[in-house]
Every structure is written in structure tokens, then in C-alpha cells.
């Protein structure tokens, strides 16, 4: 007779059970530590901006904006984050902590799920460890979004479904309804898991052999059919879930039926599986080795399913559930991406739990043989499991470390810092109400950075306000002119929102581009305009040429930019087509010591603004040297002819070869 495990004297539990409990506690604590490590260190990025913007509003406004903006997510996570933010305040750590909490909850839930399915403590511990340290789960447990919440709630829903079918208790049914309803309020794709659950119940009750259906609970009747009470409660639970969810689904039907996404990505089934499996193993930022990672993940799943099929009828029911739980949501998500069209691994995070549990089975469950196995077969089975376990542990830890060190994050804060620096550089020369920041794509994360770094700075707008709205963009540009805006900083993002340069074209009707720079990811165009009253009369007449009758020069020393505004009279008087305008910026005591220069054709169609009286003001931006010593500097204007020998300058009627239109001091 085999000796029974000795119980622990303090708890009465077998020592291996106590060791498993201690192991689970350590895994949960370490999983928590991994998730809160530097949680508030990084600023918000990417889609976190959507959540940040929504929670600034009232609950009613969140609902109305979600529907009006066709936001592809329900309001549940925004309500939760708003309640939490009202309790804890707004900080990066606090904003992300609900995701951490649900991420840690998923660790404990996957343990319980594995045990309820009848798997050993070693399998349950392995699945919990994968959930605790898997880079995909960790990544979305540290993001201010709904994905870790979706993972935990769909896992809890499936666990309650299994318990309901085994035990048929109304308290379990009520818990299932509440948890499943909450999951659907977090993400519409929770419904894909409910489809998998119903397929499991229907197929189990209808098509599978009697021994496949027989549950271990004593309340199950003989004959192999699922007891009427569990089926009745299951149908009632589904009806209640539908009734509770239907009002919102009807209100959001336009989003569900017509949303097409912001990224046109379609993948083949094979490409989608490679994307899912590699990301589930190595994290969402995986770039190299994706096919190899996907093949390894698929091999582990095949090994796990083979083990379960060889284990006998009692293991086939959990195997069938895990297969449906994994592949049905993935298949529907892929099909939905064809219609949307948008594909992202994060939308299928609910399938992570069965994926990781199957991996745990592959590496931690002993294979059972129908006939006595030889020593060689047993050794081969153990070696295979051990090899898979070593590879899996290595991939998981390397992926986790890679994520912790990675700066390749969507909308990384460094990119936004670069843009903020550009704004601070080019907006400081004017009062904040005379400057606007324009984004040609409505990236909500800028709301966070604007409030954090530019609370007293210029306001920002989206241009165009609606995707592809050229007429609306022109109206906005006219309103900017009416409100006296003199400088616009336009961020250019390559996106579906502004595919034809609508923002730049609209601004060019009322402003003139005076500079262009790069912020680290985006081109930023600087547009200028002036109040006509700022023009200073100047009677500078060039011999047999035009007269310069009004000027204005605005020196932006921080931006190292001088805006020059010139109003000519008789521009085409006795000029040949070769003559050019020069703008020189040099030391007042040494005109040859240039610190900025620009030469342009002297033509009536040069970049200009049209004033209310119909006259044109030509506008130029002149970039200054970055290394600008202290001193006094002049802005000189002149005309020369590069087609003639020596490129002679055209003199003014009083004998000058250049006209000083402004001076400024560098301290």
C-alpha cells in the first residue's frame, strides 16, 4: 500500500498542499510586485489618453460622448476609473492601479480555474506563474485601459459557468450573471467568450458521449445527461444577461454595426495566429522571431491536448472547454477584423487564460498511457515536458525583461516630450492667447501632456475637427484669424484623419508657413500672421523699382526665428524676372557678420497674406544661428540681380543698398 502524505501539524493539510498554497501566495505577491514596479514612473501613452480624457467628464457626458464619438468600447471601465480617481486623486500610479488589481486577481483566478477543472496543483501553479510573469498579462496590467479587467472578468465568468454546470446553485447563477454583465460593460469582445461558453454547454448536452458529459458532482443523474437544473439555470442566466445588456447594446448599435477603426489592417488566419501566439508568449512589443514563437506556442498546445485526450474521459471535457475558450474568441476576433478592419492582439486578451493553462498542462502535467509505458517512453515524456518547460520559462522571463527595458511603446512619452519642447520653443514669443497648437489627428493623450506641461500655455485644437472635413477646417482657420491668433503650430501625423493635407491647406489660406521642424516623430509646421495695425510705415523707394511702404519684423529668440512682413507698392515696376529679395540679419556694427539669411524671388505670388483692404503682405521666416552671441542685431532688406556679373544690388533713391527695417537685442 502506498504511504499517505504526512499532514502538517498546524494546518492538518498534506505537506504538498501546504507547499502549493505557499507557492501560490509567493507567485501572487511577486506578480503584484512586477506590476507596481515603477508603475507611476512612465507618463501616460497611447490609448491611455482616451481613458484620461473620458474620466475628466461627468458620468452622463461619458455616456453621450461614447455614443456620439462612436467610441468602440463601453463605458464600464471609464466609470470604474472615474470612481477610483475621485477617491485617490489623479496620478499615474493611481490611474493605473485598477488594472494592476484586476491583473493580480487574474493570477488567483487562473489557479482556481485550473483546480476546478480537476488539474493538479503543479499545473495550477504553472498557470498562475505564467499569468503572474507573462509579459502580455503584465503589460496590460500596467496600462490605464480595460484589458486586464476584461481578462479577469471573462476568466471569472468561465469559472462560474463551470461551477454552475457542476453544482446548479442559484447563488452561482446570480454571481455568473453579475460578473458576465460587468465584463460586457468593459469590452464588447467579452461576448466572444460567452459564445464559446454556450457552444460548450450546447455541444456537451447534445453531441458528446455519455461519459464525456458526466460531471463529478454527486447531484448529477445517471445516464450521462446534464441535469435539468444546471441547464435550466444556464438558460435563465443567459436570458438575464441578455436582458440586462440589451438596453446599452441597442443604444450603441451604430458603433457595433458601423465602426471601422482607425488602422486598416487585415491578416490571414495564419498571420493572425502568429501575431496572437507570439504576443501571448513574449509580449505585445515582440518584433523578431514571431513565427518561431508562434510555432512553439502551437506545439505546446498540441502536446497539452494530446495529454488530455490520453488521460481518459474525465479529462476530455476540460480539454473541449479550453479548446473552445481559446479558439472561438480568436476566430471571431479575426472575422471581426475583416469587417472593421482593425486587428490588435490586445482585443483578444480574454483568450490568454486558456492559452496559458494549456501551456501549463504541456509542461507540468504527466502524460497517462492506456497501457503500461516503458522506461524509455516515460523518460521521453519527462524530457519533452522538461524541455518545453525550460524554453517556456526562458521565453517568459526574457520577454518580461525585454518589456521592462523597452522604449518601443505606442505613443512613448519621449516622443511627446519632443513635441512639448517644440511648442515651448515656438510659443513663448507671443501671449498664449495669440498662439494655437493644432493636431491633424485627435490624439487624446495630448490632453494629458497639455495639462501637465502647458497648463498656462496656448490652447490646442484638432484640425480638421472631423475626419476629412476640408470645409470645416477652413472655417476653423478663419475663426483663428478673427480671434487674433498670430502663430499656429501644426503637428503633422500620417493617418486616415487627414490624408490629403487638409489642415495645412486650410491654414495656408489665412496664415503663411514660416518654419518647419521635427519633434522626434512628427513634422511640426509653424504658421505666422500679424495684426495689420502692427505694420510700421516705411517709405523706402528703390530706383526704377518698387517701394517698401510698410514692414514688421518679429524676433523670436528662443525659437531662433525672425518673422518678416513686407508690404510692397509697385512690385513689378521695371523689374526683370531674375531679381531677388534678400533678408539679412547681422550685427548692427558689422553688416557682413550674418546670423540669418534668406533669398527669395521678388514676385507678386510669393507667400503672402491678404489684408482686409485687399493688399498683400509678403511673409518670410528667417532662421537664426543657434549660437547667437549677445549684442544688437539688424534686419536688412534689399534687392539684387543674380543674373548680372557681380550680382549688383538695386539702390534706394537715397543711395542705400539695403534698408534696416528692425533691430533687436540679444542679452
N- to C-terminal distance: 95 Å
In this structure, how is the largest beta sheet organized?
5 strands, mixed
The percent range for helix content is 40-55%
Q: Tally of extended strands?
A: 15
How many individual helices?
22
Number of domains: 3
Mean pLDDT: 87
Shape: elongated
Give the low-pLDDT segments. 211-224, 407-411
Query: What value does the Rg take, in angstroms?
Result: 34 Å
Strand content: 15-25%
Structural class: alpha+beta
Widest β-sheet, arrangement of strands: 2-1-3-5-4
Task: Based on the model shown, name its key terms.
single chain; 667 residues; alpha+beta; Immunoglobulin-like; 3 domains; five-stranded mixed sheet; 22 helices; 15 strands
How would you describe this protein?
This protein has 667 residues and is of the alpha+beta class. The chain contains 22 helices and 15 strands. Helix content is 51%, strand content 16%. The strands form three sheets. It has a five-stranded mixed beta sheet, with helices on both faces. The chain has a five-stranded antiparallel beta sheet with strand order 6-7-8-12-11, with no helix packed on it. The longest helix has 31 residues. It is elongated. About 3% of the residues have low confidence.
Q: How are the secondary structure elements laid out?
A:
Elements: H1 15-36, H2 48-55, H3 59-68, H4 76-88, H5 92-116, H6 121-133, H7 135-141, H8 147-167, H9 170-186, H10 190-206, H11 210-213, H12 228-251, H13 253-258, H14 269-282, H15 290-310, H16 313-339, H17 352-364, H18 375-405, H19 413-427, E1 435-439, H20 445-453, E2 459-462, H21 470-482, E3 487-492, H22 502-508, E4 512-518, E5 523-528, E6 536-541, E7 547-556, E8 561-569, E9 580-587, E10 590-601, E11 608-610, E12 616-623, E13 631-640, E14 649-650, E15 659-666
Parallel strand pairs: 1-2, 1-3
Antiparallel strand pairs: 3-5, 4-5, 6-7, 7-8, 8-12, 9-10, 9-13, 11-12, 13-14, 13-15
Helix pairs in contact: 1-5, 1-6, 2-20, 5-6, 5-7, 5-8, 6-17, 7-18, 8-9, 8-10, 8-12, 9-12, 10-16, 14-15, 15-16, 15-17, 16-17, 17-18, 21-22
